[in-house]
Amino acid sequence: MVGAMQARAASLLCCLLACLCAPASAGSLSSLGREIERAAEEGQDRELRRLVGELVKHDDEDVVDVLLELGTEHPRDYPYRLARYHLAKSLQPAALAKLHEEAREARKLPERLLAVDACAARSDAGSTRALVAALGDDEEPILRIAARAAGARRLVPAVAPLIELYARLSEDERGPSVLERDVQAALLAITGEQFRSAIEWRSFWAARGEGFVPPSGERKELRATRIRPRFFGSEVISNRVVFVIDVSGSMRYSDRLERVKVQLRKLIDELPEEARFQLIAYSGVTVGGRLPPGAPREGPLPEKIDGKRWIASSSRALRRARERNKERATKWLAQLKPWGSTFTSEALLHAFEVKDVDQVVLLSDGRPEEYHRVTGKMLSEAAVLRRVASMNRFRQLRVDTIGLGGRGDAFLKAVAKLTGGTFVPIQ
After folding, report:
1. What are 208-218's pLDDT values in tens digits?
2. Other C-beta atoms within 10 Å of 133: how many?
């Protein structure tokens, strides 16, 4: 009798524990998803963190759907970073399997990119397989993430797909690219070797691939395999490049703008004919230390504010580096004059939206001077950096920065680090 009662009690306890540990119903997850959406839209980041923490306790595929939507549907960078963190650190088994599936098959580019970005930060076997599979994707932003992560983690299974990607890029009629350089760097990091052609790489890997162990010790520096133009000592890696030039008032000091013009004229002259380029010059317009009335609350600022043009470009799109286009760009460059403030992230947004751009080179002498679109308050450097990160999260463009002796070196160095570029200070 006593034994039967104990058995029934044990059975009831097991049922109770099963109920307590059971995953949330579709209805409750849906409700949690709506709360997360509301908190993100209202900018309630503390509440958003709490809600997402509750979400990832559940082992359900819908958890990944909610996180991917959170990270891709909001203009701010914070929801993306929060979603990526939990996708990379907090998923239960069923949700993790869903992440791997989305990294391969998500139809929307931003969602697939976020899934791959999260897999890049994970070390489990499924995430590694998804990351290696991403090297066969058709989208350059995803390929950039996958190549950089494969090199950073020295993933031997990535070598064969990296070699095939290198072969594709070597035959690309658009010429040298940032992605091609990233693939070369990844192969060097994993194998300790560097070859000029895909044929050499295939031969090497056919002989050494089975059981290959990456070399230990310090990583080697990538050697240049092509002669490329240089600008203030910074290499122009890609044949699809936009130069973003600060022409704010402080650029008149120490002939900074004139020095930029001299160096840019030399560079333009050295660009190979198959290269495509564009010049963008920017300053900024303020009234009483704020944006003029009527500035839009989101999206790119119009080229004219309060009747003044704060940004201009040498052409409407990337142009071939033919003699005629070089002459036009040089004449356009000559008429630039320093004035106004420094809307750096606004200018970068214009550069990021240039069709087929692959590399951005930013030249500036100062800190950004930018304002919140709604409150009108001046933005901190950290806030401007967050905006740059948000603008670039689905583009993954490299921004190389050149500091021209002003007070903005720390900011420019941070922009370069954020985007995988290099910073060159000029005194």
Report:
1. 988 999 988 88
2. 18
Q: What is the mean pLDDT of the chain?
A: 91
CATH topology of domain 230-425: Rossmann fold (3.40.50)
Q: Which DSSP string do the residues of 47-101 spell out, in sequence order?
A: HHHHHHHHHTTS--HHHHHHHHHHHHS-SSHHHHHHHHHHHHH---HHHHHHHHH
All structural domains of the chain with their residue ranges: 27-122, 137-207, 230-425
- Residue among 3, 359, 5 nearest 182 (CA): 359
pLDDT digits (tens, 9 = 90+) for 393-406: 999 999 999 999 87
Residue 156, helix vs strand vs coil: helix
pLDDT digits (tens, 9 = 90+) for 326-363: 999 999 999 999 999 999 999 999 999 999 999 999 99
* Distance from the Cα of residue 299 to its chain's centroid: 18
Tokens of 238: 């890609």
Q: Are 280 and 242 in contact (CB under 8 A)?
A: yes
Nearest in space to 389 (alpha carbons), one of 71, 11, 102 = 71
Label residue 117 by pLDDT band (50, 70, 90).
Answer: very high
Percent of the chain predicted with pLDDT > 70? 93
For residue 311, give the H/E element and its range. Answer: strand 311-313
Residues 6+ positions from 259 with CB-CB distance below 8 Å:
404, 426
* Contact yes or no for 282/245 (Cβ under 8 A): yes
pLDDT at 21: 43
